[in-house]
Structures are given as C-alpha cells and as structure tokens.
Amino acid sequence: MKILIVYGTTDGMTAKIAERMAQTLRGASHTVETASTSALPAGLDPATFEAVLVGGSIHAGGYQRSMRKFVRRHLQILRRVPSGFFSVCMAIASRDAKSREAAWEIARALPRELAWVPDVVEVIAGALMFSRYGFLRRFVMVRIARKEMGEVDATRDHVFTDWEAVDRFALRFAELAQGQRRIASTTLSAASRASPKSMRVDGL
Questions:
Q1: Is the distance from CB of 109 to CB of 101 less than 8 angstroms?
Q2: In this structure, are residues 174 and 1 in contact, taking their beta carbons and an 8 Å threshold?
Q3: Which structural domains are found in the chain, ordered by start?
Q4: How would you classify the pairing of strands 127-128 and 158-159?
Q5: Quick one: angle between helices 13-27 and 163-193, nearest 10?
Q6: I need a surface site. Which of 21, 53, 127, 202 has the fewest CB within 10 A?
Q7: pTM for the structure as a whole
Q8: Are 133 and 168 contacting, i.e. CB atoms less than 8 angstroms apart?
C-alpha cells in the first residue's frame, strides 16, 4: 500500500515519530513517503496515495498552522481515502487523569473543527526538548512538567514516547486502510459484474 505521512512539527519530535512510523510500515512492505507540512515537496499530490496519516503537536493549546492548512486544502482527499490523525502531546504522559483526558479531547476536537472524520485518532507522548528552549520557554515548561509529572532535570532532554505503541498504531492504521480498500474493491467489482437484465428500470 502507498501511504503518505505528513506532519507539523515545532521542535522536531513529531518528525521523529512520523519517520518511525514510516520505517515500521516500510518494514511491513508498504511504500511510504513523509513530508513536513511547512515544507511540502514540489509536486506532492496526496491524491496519488492510497492512505494518508496526518500528525501535529500541541503547543500552547494549538496545532501547527501549516498542518491545519494542509487538512483544509486536501479535505476531499482525506474524506475519500483511509486517513488517520496522530496528536503529539506531553499531557498524555501526565500523572493526572484529567490532563490525559484533555489531551484526547484536544485531539478529537481538531478533526471536528475542520469537518474531517479520520478513521483513527491517536495521542502520543512527545518529549521535553530543554536543549531547544529559550530561557522563558524553559522556565514555563519546567513548571508545567513538575506539576504534571513531578521533578524533572532541565539540564537534559527527556523523551516520553512509547516507540512500541507508535509501531502498533502505524501497523493498525495500515491494516485498517487495507481492509477498507479491499471492501471498496469488492463492492466495485460486484457492481461492475451486475447484469443489466437483473436491474429493474421503471417504465420498461
């Protein structure tokens, strides 16, 4: 199956997750192309793919503008082929159940807002990339992290991503997409074999 994975990323973690999905899917004999929504390759046409995964990360309660723009621009394609959305969010790693549920609600809200109904939605923990943060952002992120997860060492980066869960999600999406394609193909084949004589036409 030919699969496109596009993503919005701020600190690079969503890109790493997308590439891990691509690696896993290629290992399962799928053809996969990845692209950042902020730097889409010239000539990239989502309509040439059999399934599309879209990812983005939450920052200050919102997703990357370029990712949202991609969904709006290619909404008809995303409605036509099997599609999925993965949200990279540190809140899913919180020790607080309400914060984890909020992460899911934000992930579900984006497709609703854009009138898109993906076949699957997943929330994936990202990373605290302290080495990339400026002074103010580091200060804010340390306070948030301590509230949600306890003490953290701000002198180094922390990756919370469950890579095996990422692999399972990617393979589950591909399996679902293949199943949908088989159903569509079977339905089309059955329709093409239908005899005109068996069809009732009013007035004849």
A1: no
A2: yes
A3: 2-126+161-198 (3.40.50.360), 129-158 (no CATH)
A4: antiparallel
A5: 60
A6: 202
A7: 0.83
A8: no
Q: What is the pLDDT of residues 16-36, one digit of tens each?
A: 999 999 999 999 999 999 999
Write down the pLDDT at residue 154. 75
Q: Computed over its alpha carbons, how large is the radius of gyration of the chain?
A: 20
Q: Provide CB contacts within 8 A for 59, sequence distance 6+.
A: 10
pLDDT in tens, 99-124: 899 999 999 999 999 999 999 999 99
Structure tokens at 42: 């010239």
3-class secondary structure, 94? coil
Question: Which of 20, 90, 25, 83 is CA-nearest to residue 54?
Answer: 83
- φ and ψ at 181, to 5 degrees? -65, -40
Tokens of 36: 């950042």
The angle subtended at Cα 169 by Cα 34 and Cα 188, nearest 5°, is 80
* pLDDT (tens digit per residue) in 2-20: 999 999 999 899 999 999 9
